[in-house]
């Protein structure tokens, strides 16, 4: 443990740049919106022209990709055969030994990113983290002091080992994008090379390649405001930090992702259903993220054989969610109204991520996977005072709060 932490500490890179952000997940973000990160500077005609060669390349690659796809299918089959054929080991194994994962958006042990890191690690993957620069110091300190030791425990008795933590701010693609007020902000002092492009380059220099890319971050400075009261700046900041950040991550990491790799993000039901209180453009950002998941699945799938999926998670009392202000109510609501009346654990999402990252999911891409105890499927709040109990739930009525 001590060795792994000191390695990690030594591995952390530092510089002198800064920002106007404050920590808290979906909380705060730059006061100045980076329009260049949201809207491509190209005109429509330039955009079409620049895309053409890519689509030609996509078409010509098909036969090579088909052969690779067949090989991967056979490998997935071997996973079953090695278990069921011998009968020596019951169940389906998720074996990610030899795989390397980069997980963006881990700054404590309470959120989905941490649980995903644990599940991938338990399956044998090597873990690299990207931690938001303003949250890096406290995360590093807590790790060193052993504050997360209990939650680093894995089901097999091992511990989550983090090979390296990279400072990251996914709102900025390249050093040229960083405005002076961010450069001079003391919360960025001491860290360096934290734009998406630089982090991808650093991972390439350190490890050569990755197999799994996870985006577990969101930020909406006006999340507590209704959409009608959200400013243009707040709306675009939410999209930049919570949606385009994923496009950017995949864009810069794709060249170092091994063929057959996997990319995942986290989304929320507010993208497709009205969730009053999840404001500031965050619902729009999640809708964009889900739409981008489909388009990126096509582009990254054709070009590099990469699968792209997003997990729509139920409510969890993470640091980011606490910033929204009503997460406890949402958890209670889910327990009262979802088909499965149990509180969502971050491990539920972690285990799904491990499955999606494994060959067992080798034909799943471009999809929103719900891990929410089934809440998304409900069309009626069964605990509403407007609903008669007898009509609301045919069984297990004793579990439904009065
Ligand atoms: P979390 O606080 O553990 O994770 C959010 C992370 O985003 C934090 O580590 C924060 O430091 C990081 N971050 C914010 N801005 C960043 C930036 N510019 N660059 C890099 N990192 C940045 O909270 P969480 O709830 O586990 O959130 C993870 C993902 O899950 C988010 O996409 C969130 O929208 C999604 N989600 C959460 C819930 C929930 O109820 N908690 C439900 C559905 C989906």
UniProtKB/TrEMBL annotation:
Pfam families: adh_short_C2. The keyword Ribonucleoprotein does not apply. It comes from the Eukaryota. InterPro entries: Enoyl-ACP_Rdtase_NADH, NAD(P)-bd_dom_sf, SDR_fam. Keywords: Fatty acid biosynthesis, Fatty acid metabolism, Lipid biosynthesis, Lipid metabolism, Oxidoreductase. Pathway: Lipid metabolism. Belongs to the short-chain dehydrogenases/reductases (SDR) family. FabI subfamily. This is Uncharacterized protein. It comes from Sphagnum troendelagicum.
